[in-house]
Design goal:
Two copies of one chain form a homodimer. Chain A is mostly beta strands. Chain A has six helices and 21 strands. Chain A has helices spanning 7-14, 20-25, 32-35, 120-123, 169-175, 265-268, and strands at residues 59-63, 66-69, 87-88, 106-110, 116-119, 129-136, 159-168, 185-190, 206-210, 218-223, 226-227, 237-239, 252-258, 293-298, 309-318, 324-330, 338-339, 341-342, 352-361, 364-374, 401-405. In chain A, strands 5-4-13-8-9 form a five-stranded mixed beta sheet. In chain A, strands 6, 7, 10, 11 and 12 form a five-stranded antiparallel beta sheet that branches. Chain A is globular. The termini of chain A are far apart. Chains A and B meet through strand 6, strand 7, strand 15 and strand 19 of A and strand 6, strand 7, strand 15 and strand 19 of B.
Chain lengths: 406, 406
């Protein structure tokens, strides 16, 4: 997979629809965003105009399309305010005019007995549900992999827990007669405008997830109580709770029940769990479900030295597909563990939950780590398998942080 | 109780510390904000500068210190974004400079075995909890009372459900040796700067709540994952979950365990459930716990006519002190009822929860109402007792709304 370290070119690709032509000129990158996202140091860059409404102090701007939440800005309330939620786009967004009349946005539904196109206004007559869920970039934690995979060097903050509201995909499918027999995948297609002159399959944002995801999938028009912002996929986004970011299709314009996975590059070769240095292909597992993961948000080195004495060590813990049940915290890099307490409300199987351990710390240096167990007994791994794309890193050892107590 | 309809005077009182002197000049209103808040029509006024960061399109500005969330802006996610949360202040706020160094804010704790003053930084070492809870102005729904009580004519939107994070008051009290024996109330004092020349007790924001509230009371520095905004009481607010707005002391500078209720006017004569036309006094119940209440957010007349056909009738339901268990919806003004479905996560006993009823509506006019039953079997009343202050209106009949289906 080609990955250019040319920062100015990356900027061009990232900054707007006009720049799309550049992608065409450079040939046919299999996954445009992969090609366009080499190691980017976390410098203090201003927020790009399209997300000027976000809370700049809470965010790290890697590039205009890769913006991370600071560890210390993840809070202890369990829900991530939209102003602090990370941004990661695979292609330049469609024109912002699509949110001028949200109810007019159209979704084609195929692979059902009565395929048809519905407006958001029509979708709003079919059902209403609300689901708290972690939204996490597939590459969150990439910077902690030993093989140093190319791509945005996310720490912990390409993740947030938000509440999505919209219509259950199941309700829409039922209204259209149900899926055609024999379908095995739900394939969602994003409405990004594609560059001219290159094969759409090489860049289109189109993902397939197993039919089992139909159970809780949502066509969302609202996040955290507000109309879904354009930067996060408004007017309509396909939410597949428990699945990593890329599977949650922004500006979704088509949902199809399909016999096979899409042959879009982003599915066929991109977002595959292939060993470091190899190219992805369909023989490797797709990046789909997230697993148990937790990390410490405070104390954090980025906030400076911690004062000796009583300290509330807190962070967030998710099960991925199951609610967290138990969190342990280590202050000595994993040699010994103590049970932390879960706080706040249990927001369900797809949400994360804040945890806290009250302890006394003497001056010194500590390596603090956390380890979650979900409601099914699945324990956060000590190390996640390193892989070429740097995906799904949830290893507790790699996520441990060092703090100084003075 | 004197209530001046002079709008320009009300504006002066409301707009800044300099205007405080005006209060002094006018004599000694028992509860300044009561005196200063007669009927205010919901005109389209701009947001005042101190809350310019709020979402103007979601809000109705009654006065600069009384700002309501539109019914259609309450969303279906269960949590109210802070940008949409209502505002109601009893006195002009302390200078905004108090949030420049949040950790330095000081809280005096009295009526405990080891009384002392703690900074927010110190409070942060004592514990951490997170509680979703409805924040509702005591006068929310006032405009629906038949006696037309004076005061801001709130509809449904002087309420929101948010997540507070901070230290449990119980943890602070335990660290200070526990309450002195015989104390029956928790008395919180706000840090508003008081006008010179008048008896502080006539205007000070100081409230007493029963000791039973200690169980879940929180000293909060965060709301919805962000540092508590100054406009909502930052750097520190006493949260008494389940109790109406006035009991949740902004800029809290003192918490004391006391044998008796404070004799501040806002407690002694203000916020009492006295009959229409009477003055409050301690013989009438204080405005404390909230009860079961629900209302419809959509369809709503403010959004224009509803299209005939399938409709998702949705709203929010709270138990006050207990989680909602059941919601019924009526489309004929309370003659017949149908069970609605609760959606989203159960955020606990103090939160509200969205509900939805899917139905088909033919063209016509409908009076739609909702009625909640909490987990203890308490049912939302058909009518709340009318009272002089217009407090705690939760009657389902008064909250019914008329819509047109075309």
């Amino acid at each position: 997979m080609e990955r250019s370290p040319d920062f100015s070119r990356r900027r061009l690709i990232a900054t707007g629809p006009g720049a799309l032509a550049i992608v065409g000129l450079t040939g046919a990158p299999r996954v445009a965003a992969q090609a366009a996202a080499p190691v980017a140091p976390a410098q203090a860059k201003p927020l790009p105009a399209y997300v000027a409404w976000k809370d700049a102090d809470s965010l790290i701007v890697h590039t205009p399309t890769t913006i991370e939440t600071k560890r210390t800005a993840l809070g202890s309330s369990g829900i991530t305010p939209t102003e602090r939620l990370f941004i990661r786009n695979n292609l330049p967004a469609p024109d912002v005019s699509i949110v001028a009349n949200r109810d007019a946005w159209q979704l084609a539904v195929d692979g059902v007995r009565q395929p048809r196109t519905l407006t958001v206004a029509e979708l709003k007559t079919l059902g209403l549900e609300s689901i708290p869920a972690v939204l996490q970039c597939s590459g969150n934690g990439r910077s902690y992999f030993p093989s140093k995979p190319a791509g945005t060097r996310w720490g912990v903050g390409a993740a947030g827990c938000v509440i999505w509201s919209g219509v259950p995909l199941q309700a829409v499918v039922e209204a259209l007669g149900g899926p055609v027999a024999g379908m095995r995948f739900i394939t969602g297609t994003g409405g990004e405008k594609l560059p001219d002159g290159i094969d759409p399959r090489t860049v289109i944002v189109e993902r397939s997830v197993p039919m089992t995801a139909l159970q809780d999938a949502l066509l969302a028009w609202e996040v955290n109580g507000e109309p879904l912002p354009h930067a996060h996929g408004g007017p309509l986004r396909l939410i597949v709770p428990g699945y990593s970011g890329v599977n949650n299709i922004k500006y979704v314009k088509r949902v199809a029940f399909t016999r096979d996975e899409t042959d879009a590059a982003i599915q066929r070769t991109g977002y595959r769990m292939s060993p470091p240095g190899t190219k992805g292909d369909p023989s490797f597992p797709a990046v789909w479900e997230m697993g148990p993961k937790s990390w410490i948000n405070s104390p954090a080195a980025e906030a400076g030295p911690t004062k000796a004495g009583w300290v509330q060590v807190h962070g967030v813990a998710m099960g991925g597909m199951q609610a967290p049940r138990r969190v342990e915290v280590s202050l000595d890099g994993g040699k010994t563990w103590r049970d932390a307490g879960l706080i706040g409300a249990n927001l369900g199987r797809y949400a994360w939950r804040p945890f806290v351990l009250q302890t006394q710390l003497k001056p010194g240096t500590y390596t603090i780590a956390s380890r979650v167990t979900d409601s099914q007994g699945n324990v956060q791994a000590e190390a996640s398998p390193d892989n070429a794309g740097g995906y799904l890193n949830s290893g507790w050892r790699a996520h441990a942080t060092q703090i100084t107590v003075a």
